[in-house]
Amino acid sequence: MAEHSTPYRILTLNNISARGLARLPRERYQVGGDIDRPDAILVRSADLHDIGIAPEVRAIGRAGAGVNNIPVAAMSARGIPVFNTPGANANAVKELVLAGLLLAARNIAPAWLFARGLSGDDAAIEEAVEHGKKRFVGFELPGRTLGVVGLGAVGVEVANAALALGMKVLGYDPQLTVQRAWQLSASAEQARSLEDLFARSTAVSVHVPLTAETRGLVNAARLALMKPDGTILNFARAPIVDDAAVLAALDARRLHAYVCDFPTRALKDHPRVVTLPHLGASTSEAEENCAVMVAEQMRDFLENGNIRNSVNYPEAVLPRLPNATRLAVANRNVPNMVGQISTCLAAQRINIADLLNKSRGEYAYTLIDADGEVGEELLARIRAIDGVLSARRV
């Protein structure tokens, strides 16, 4: 563990589970919503786009998966890793997706509203039930096909759970990782394209981040490929689905139902739309899991320089050597960066005991364990290298 003369200062912009904050020892961390000059920021849903990020900030942690509320590109250019918590809320979202499948298949929401609207004595209600129930005839899930777009932590859990319910599963994810592939049941089938997935699926559930490429992924052209009893489930991000296209398909009876976590004026009152108030990760277990995970990642970064689950910088974990000085350098991914840093150290007769350099797109990150003290003058020389975005002793 690195020595740190003063406590690390952590600004929290939302209520973070106490179980997670307990992973930041009080003797080493000052944590709260009124911290100035913070070393790091912990956030859930607070929007950071329109607030100034203090120059002292070294990292931002999001207790959740999506990071649309964080100016990631601007932080990358400052050498600031942005952490999230992939998989920490996967079970919570999976359970809600399964609930959405059943809500749609059995027409539970309109049937419940019908039952709540009944009046008269019990005999009158029974008679109305017998006459009205035929309006809510549904279908069973076994044998039907669920298309899962995005096979990350949530998508894999959804796919495996659907298979356990007797459904067939088509998955589509061009960026499927080896880790997730090992977790995915061998019974899941790979779709050749999004169009192939929509054409062959009874229901489609989306589990991708919101990017320029995924905005409007569920659109009129793809909905037109689905069977008339199809269902769309969206517990990812609202703009991934084109609401107008979904409503048009529902009104034309080319789509059975839309279940989502994002109410709008246009959606909330439609008889075949079920909108929930963003409940995907709203369980006490998920909130605790996310808080614990992001706090542990943040602590490891501040105290050891290690990066785990960053959305903008590479995974970089280097076991610490005893009696060595650790340097952490974030830089643009350009040639000879490690060479220039090594030259600065060599000029001060400082040997490199261990080194890790990883890159990700435009950015790279280097951890160095050096035999010897690294003073402020040497740090300033490293920071002055063209392309270095941040450098610190850990």
Tell me what you see in this structure.
With 394 residues, the protein is of the alpha/beta class. The chain has three domains: 117 residues, Rossmann fold; 186 residues, 3-Layer(aba) Sandwich (Rossmann fold); 81 residues, 2-Layer Sandwich (Alpha-Beta Plaits), CATH 3.30.70.260. 31% of the residues lie in helices and 20% in strands. It has 13 helices and 16 strands. The strands form three sheets. It has a seven-stranded parallel beta sheet with strand order 8-7-6-9-10-11-12, sandwiched between helices. Strands 2-1-3-4-5 form a five-stranded parallel beta sheet. β6, α6 and β7 form a beta-alpha-beta unit. α3 packs across α6. The radius of gyration is 25 Å and the shape is elongated. It starts with 7 loop residues before the first strand and ends with a strand.
Helix and strand topology:
Layout: E1 8-12, H1 18-21, E2 29-32, E3 40-43, E4 59-62, H2 72-77, E5 82-83, H3 90-105, H4 108-116, H5 122-132, E6 145-149, H6 153-164, E7 168-172, H7 178-183, E8 189-190, H8 194-200, E9 203-206, H9 220-223, E10 231-234, H10 243-251, E11 257-260, E12 273-275, H11 284-304, E13 325-332, H12 337-347, E14 351-360, E15 363-371, H13 376-383, E16 388-393
Helix pairs in contact: 3-6
Overall geometry = elongated
CATH architecture of the largest domain: 3-Layer(aba) Sandwich
Total strands: the figure is 16
Cα distance, first to last residue? Answer: 9 Å
Say what the CATH topology of the largest domain is. Rossmann fold
Radius of gyration: 25 Å
Say which CATH homologous superfamily of the largest domain is assigned. NAD(P)-binding Rossmann-like Domain
